[in-house]
Amino acid sequence: MNIFGGLAGLGSVASVQLEWRTRDGSAPQTVTLRGRGAETETLPLFTNKDSIVGDVKATPIPGKKADHLGIRVQLIGQIELASERGHPTDFLSLARELAPAGDLRQQAVLPFEFKSVEMEHDSYKGLQVRLRYLLRVTISRNYGASVVRDFPFWVRNYQPVDPSPSLAPVKMEVGIEDCLHIEFEYMRGRYHLQDTVVGKIYFLLVRIRLKHMEIEIRRREYTGSGKSERTELETLAKFEIMDGAPVRGGNIPI
After folding, report:
1. Taking residues 226-243, what's their average pLDDT?
2. What is the tens place of the pLDDT at every residue in 9-64?
3. How far is Cα 70 from Cα 32, in angstroms, rounded to an integer?
4. For the chain, which terminus, N or C, has the lower number of CB atoms within 10 Å?
């Protein structure tokens, strides 16, 4: 079992945790995501049609009781544009009522399960848009504001790929007329998430001086449509593959 997220205060008299598990009681898979700079975030990992199972633990402060109007958990899928920050659109919303109105005098362990959830969209965190899934625990109170705590998780779907086009080599030619002619060749056009890109660069014509060469992996992101369409380009990785002047007929392995 894995506990993600910290504690959410119920006023000053209780705390809340969410414990994830699978239907057989084991801990779910996790994924570590890169954030800003060197920051990373570890989240539970699920795929389409998985069941989301766990326990909400509400614990009162010793010697005190916490009155409430009910406890529930929601499974929410949201998409949010940077231009609409703070106003996400929900494309998925499921709910389970965990406890009726009452009071907490000791820790309450409240199991929940969302069976075979339709999660056909992959989680995504880009420059202009993000798509995310989360569990939202709400404790409605007799007085004061309700306590709301979000526990995000990640969805990644895997689909079989037709091997015939994806295994074909990819070739691209670039250059400057009568000065430079370079040909790039990669083993194939599709790769899995932990794959290695292998290829070669051929120098067919070199009549200008080159000092070094870099290759970048970029992600192009499109949002909106028509006049409101925006394109963002993000460099995910950069590699120096040549330091020095190439010669005609030479090649560089990638």
Report:
1. 84
2. 544 567 889 999 888 888 899 999 887 777 889 999 999 999 999 999 988 888 88
3. 34
4. N
E-assigned strand segments in the chain: 2-3, 8-10, 14-21, 30-34, 40-46, 52-60, 66-68, 70-81, 89-99, 102-104, 108-114, 124-125, 129-140, 147-155, 170-176, 180-186, 199-206, 212-223, 230-243, 251-253
Altogether, the residues listed in the chain come to a count of 254
Q: How far is CA 61 from the centre of its chain?
A: 35
pLDDT tens-digit readout, 183-201: 988 888 877 777 888 889 8
Tell which residue, 57, 43, 1, has the closest CA to residue 26.
1
Dihedral sign, CA of 174, 177, 180, 181? positive
